[in-house]
Amino acid sequence: MKLTLIAVGISALLMGCSTANQSNQQSAPSGGTSITGNQLQKMNLSYPNTRKDDVTDSYFGTQVADPYRWLEDDMSSETKQWVKAENAVTQAYLAQVPSRDKLKERLKVLLDYEKVGAPFKEGRYTYFFKNDGLQNQAVLYRQLDDGEAHVFLDPNTFSEDGTTSLASIEFSKDGSLVTYLISEGGSDWRKAITIDVETMQSVSETLTDLKFSDISWLGNEGFYYSSYDKPEGSELSAKTDQHKLYFHSLKDKQSEDTLVFGGTQAQKNRYVSGHVTEDNRYLLISAAVSTSGNKLYLKDLNEPDSELVTILDNTDSDTQLLDNDGSTLLLVTNLAAPNKRVVSVDASQPQPENWQDFIPETNNVLDVSTGGGYIFASYMLDAISNVKQLDKSGKLVREITLPGVGTASGFSGKKDQQTLYYSFTNYKTPSTIFSLDVESGESAVYLKSKAKFDSDAYESKQVFYTSKDGTKVPMIITHKKGLKLDGSNPTMLYGYGGFNISLQPAFSSVTAAWLEQGGVYAVPNLRGGGEYGKAWHDAGTKLQKQNVFDDFIAAAEFLIAQNYTSPDYLAIRGGSNGGLLVGATMLQRPELFKVALPAVGVLDMLRYHTFTAGAGWAYDYGTAQDSKEMFDYLMTYSPVQNVREGMNYPATLITTGDHDDRVVPAHSFKFAAELQAKHTGPNPMLIRIETNAGHGAGTPISKTIEQYADIFGFTLYNMGVKVQ
């Protein structure tokens, strides 16, 4: 059972200023009081002198300058000095924000509660994750039957500063052995440690240099994992584009591991993974060149010398194994089904022409899991969960009654489990864990959240607004009850809009801190996401990427038109692909926003594919080398290339990590340099660079508190809102 560690910590999803002439007579946003004009005087900012080089690239006969190319070299002493200088300017500014310390203390209170994850059974033991409150990392506990729980793994002991995290963990089928992956400094590169669960002693050498890897056990003999060859130069930014699947036998050294797939030019793919069925009979290999679409292969492990059988030889669909019953395979696919379906097929002839619908496609996007001998079909209805329980034949057993409108997740486990667990949450409701008796269908509260937040004082509702081309887009808006719609409410508009990722409502104590200040929190489900299936995703990719920005801009215009807020009180935030969203929209419509908060953003669209695994994002973005049409289109919105001279942009706080090897920090560095060089006006153009930190996953709680105290303090200060 593989576990990613986000259920009991701060959400790894990154959410999320101008000081113009504001007077004492300005009306205060709801829940705050106005700051005096003297307090809002422009802070003296002197940005570092960022060297400009005469570097140009030619694209289809067009010369494009790239004066800050040198900032891409994360190994150079000059880049390191630039980072120190920028951080010094940013921290000097933030130190003068009067609400920073107050927000930090409030975030500590909101995050200081016991967080416990759903239990899961492995071998003789029951395991669960728990964070006592402000521990940097969640701790894995175990107990035998009804006995006392004891610490099994404590990631807080992995490093003194809490920056080495437990990235994932996978038990062998009988639960006697476990392999866990650790991430150091937020990097995507992992180490794999394998131990005996009884003795806690290592049973294999530590594997190094795994990346974007699952662990899948074959009995107790060993496991499959994935990695790239170690890149030349910087491992944080050098390109990696040939993923390989290996089998590690516990008795062998890593140098002796068997290369299973990906070693030839014909098998060259950017993402490769292997999965062994629960009965150890089959190995399924998925291979992809991009983040959407995969090839699929099958190997019969009962016949070690058997050849790979091709199920899909193209990347026109996303197809994965759900389960097997003997030689009958159940596959989840969007082939000829944009909203996904489940098909059954015999392993002897597993190609699409032999597929039979097991769970047919519907008008709603399907996610599916198994546990207790049943199948659970979770549908998204306008980004809201609806869950149905099916038997082995695909017949409806019951619809699971959920406690409200929100997001339900879980519903998975081993085939012989009588009790499964699921969580339910929305933007104003802390996550509650429920137990589900799979035979009776009865749910019961297993663990209620201890979050220090009064949900009853807030309301969350879904609205639909019209984008530029007439498309209806859903958005969930959360705020205190009794909010006055007078245009003066500080509002955080958060978005993503890409990679088929769906933003479903979920509680965050960090967001709670914003809501407590009288803030409005609004999340639209933009095109490019997966809320309405493959068609919705594709409508926000490549030559249609502007649709995503238009949807976000229309969300802002809706909030303003409905008097939730106004341009003086509107902040936009997004991370990764959402950082691109913020960067593009703040440049296209600077007058709409007071504050822009791009986090770990993809901001240089001409060169993103030259770093680490960035070329795998081409399904969503296209590349500047694809065609003149694609290059011209990218040039219309790429943030680094579209900062204009003499513009008054919103107050901007860019955030990134110096160890981010997914979206390398050079994106943020170059964008900051462009803004600082060309922006005109009093608004700050700052970059906050977290050291020894990556793309976001595994961030210690201590750093999370500091980061959001800075982000919210910066935002409210530039809106003229005094923290309560």
TrEMBL record:
Domain of life from the UniProt record: Bacteria
User: Gene3D superfamilies, per this entry?
Assistant: alpha/beta hydrolase (3.40.50.1820), Prolyl oligopeptidase, N-terminal domain (2.130.10.120)
Q: Which UniProt keywords apply?
A: Hydrolase, Protease, Serine protease, Signal
Q: Which family does it belong to?
A: Belongs to the peptidase S9A family.
- The record's top EC class is hydrolase
Q: What is this protein called?
A: prolyl oligopeptidase
Protein's organism: Paraglaciecola agarilytica NO2
Give TM regions. none
One Pfam family cited in the UniProt record for this chain: Peptidase_S9
